[in-house]
Amino acid sequence: MNRSFLFLLGSARQGGNTETLARAAAEQLPAGAEQRWLDLTRLPLADFTDARHSGGAWPEPGEPEAGNEALLRDATLAATDIVLVTPLYWYSVSSSTKAYLDHWTKWLYVPGLDFRARMAGRTLWGVTAMGDRAEALAQPLELMLGNTAAYMKMRYGGVLLGNGSGPGQVLDDTRALARAKTFFARQAPLARSTGE
Ligand SMILES: Cc1cc2nc3c(=O)[nH]c(=O)nc-3n(C[C@H](O)[C@H](O)[C@H](O)COP(=O)(O)O)c2cc1C
């Protein structure tokens, strides 16, 4: 199966360090690998409401899905590789990235969609810029993505980290740019939950 990478931009600003780093890594993808780039901040999702245990059908049959949600759901299911391109915000993912992941829970409950079964075996990756130089501070984000991948029985490619605060600063992080060259070449193992 041809690889098809879905890059989901989650920074709250345009042209930031995270996107720069992700594009450096994506440049190394083989020509045959498809790339699709979507900006989550330009495709806002409705506030997530948890109606899993409300007794009624959820989502309601025939509920008109917001266009952005349908677009993101279909793009997710069409990709072999999901790349969350999110800055480190408060040691975790950005709010648009989190809102997207919360909607995975909804999609798990859509009758007939088989979201979990269809996502199994695909690969989750992260690309993250952060202001602090201490990369260990990104561990909450790395664990969160790894456990998410494990819950979904996905592969996990890990997180490509880069340092930067002002736009463009990540280009000074030569270690991150070197890691970007081979990031997507790694064999992503099946994710393992830290709860195992
Ligand atoms: C709301 C917010 C929260 C942040 N939290 C952290 C943090 O917890 N740790 C950190 O190292 N940097 C933090 N930063 C700095 C960003 O990670 C840094 O500026 C990064 O380059 C932003 O990515 P971008 O250029 O792609 O927008 C935060 C920035 C913002 C705006």
Automatic annotation (TrEMBL):
Family matches, as InterPro entries: Flavoprotein-like_sf (IPR029039), FMN_Rdtase-like_dom (IPR005025), ISF_SsuE-like (IPR051796)
One Pfam family named in its UniProt record: FMN_red
Top EC class for this record: oxidoreductase
EC number: 1.-.-.-
Keyword flag Cell inner membrane: no
GO MF annotation: an example: oxidoreductase activity
Keywords: Flavoprotein, FMN, Oxidoreductase
NADPH-dependent FMN reductase-like domain: residues covered: 6-139
Name recorded for this polypeptide: NAD(P)H-dependent oxidoreductase
Protein source organism: Streptomyces chilikensis
